[in-house]
Amino acid sequence: MLKEDISGWTLLTLRGVAIRLHISLLFLLFYVALVAMIQFPVVIQLSKANINDVSGTPFIWAVIFSLALVLSIFIHEFGHVLMAQAKGLKVRAITLMMLGGASQIEEIPEEPSIEFKVAIIGPLVSLGIAATLFGIRELSNSANIDFFCYWVGQTNLALGIFNLLPAFPMDGGRVLRAFLVTKQGYLLGTWTAVKVSQVFVWIFGVIGFLQFNFLLMLIAFFLYAAAKSEYFVVMSQALLKGLRARDLMISLPSISENTTISEAVFQMAHSKTLLLPVIREAGQPSLITANLLKQIPKKTWDTMRIKDISVELLKVIHPDDPIEDIMILTLKTIMGGVPVVQDNQLVGVVRASDILDAIALRQLTEEESILKPWSLRIRHAHSR
Ligand SMILES: [Zn+2]
């Protein structure tokens, strides 16, 4: 999954990891608080608490409960982060959003034992929180604490079990993949895990539909898209094996950062390209795209220079970089490409479109040998 694209408002930074809140978290809080308020009497009954001993209105409890849920999700995610860091993986951010949390781990480990440990720790943390709250409940004499521990404990128990379901890319799906990879290899293992996930997606979707459970239908939709994208990445990396940046890069005329926008547009039209490399006086080469230029008012084009436009600082790549390593970086950049630099000299550009073309071409010629037993079905899936 290309998790790097998730945006959010950074709340704080912990152990080098940005803790971010996504706008959709507000919907989750609202939805959970609403459901919690409706279910309050049922939960009181289930917890065997006496309603007269529990203080506070259903509304206050609903607010407390939704905040406790977000905190529980955060602790679960932080479990993943600590394990990933212990295994030497870099973690950029945790984003808390509508469908729980997502940890942006720089690269998903291909080593199955590491993926297993990083994945399994999350559900274990949730189950641990549940056990702790149930323990506190046994010891406490307060009806309020008793009720809180019951409600949040049960929820963490459900969260732990739900995340263990083998639906990719939930934790259980990653555990399953780690297991399958040891038996079938990385590509085929991922493919099998994605197939198993699709069964669960259908089950979630149908149950959600029959129960008018909006959240479950949304989860089904999310899992479907995420599993497909994970497989796309893994399959593409396998297909692109052996290719290096120099094999796909093209040379485009570069412009200086002192070029006016008018001149840059002229150069683009002349070279029949939508992006041009920019040589900067200080720092790495950058890129300018037609999309960026389009946003500048035309009357300023003759006076404004390329350096006046704030250009996203890009990572540059080396001609010898394997395409499989730079694929995600190139496909997700809004610039549509990445400059290739050797000995501080710009030598070319690798465009996202060239990578997609290379994937499509290799699919035509090499898929069969990479994925023998499954190739027919993949072709079918891709034709839809
Ligand atoms: Zn998790």
- State which percent range the strand residues make up: 5-15%
Compute the separation of the termini in Å: 20 Å
Q: How much is the radius of gyration in Å?
A: 25 Å
Shape descriptor reads elongated
Number of helices: 13
Ligands bound, unique: zinc ion
| Main sheet characteristics | 4 strands, mixed
Give, in order, the helices and strands. Answer: EEHHEEHHHHHHEHEEHHEEHH
Cross-sheet strand order for the largest sheet: 1-2-3-4
Which regions contain 5 or more consecutive residues with pLDDT less than 50? 1-5, 372-384
Structural class: alpha/beta
Number of domains: 3
Mean pLDDT: 80
Q: How many strands?
A: 9
Helix content: 55-70%
Describe the structure.
With 384 residues, this protein is an alpha/beta fold. It folds into three domains: 3-164, no CATH class; 179-239; 245-357, Roll (CBS-domain), CATH 3.10.580.10. The chain contains 13 helices and nine strands. A four-stranded mixed β-sheet has the order 1-2-3-4. Strand 8 (337-342) and strand 9 form a beta hairpin. Helix 3 runs antiparallel to helix 4 (143-164), helix 5 (171-184) runs antiparallel to helix 6 and helix 7 crosses helix 11 (323-332). It is elongated and about 80 Å long. It starts with 8 loop residues before the first strand and ends with a helix. Residues 1-5 and 372-384 have low confidence and may be disordered. Zinc ion (ZN) binds at residues 76, 80, 122, 163, 171.
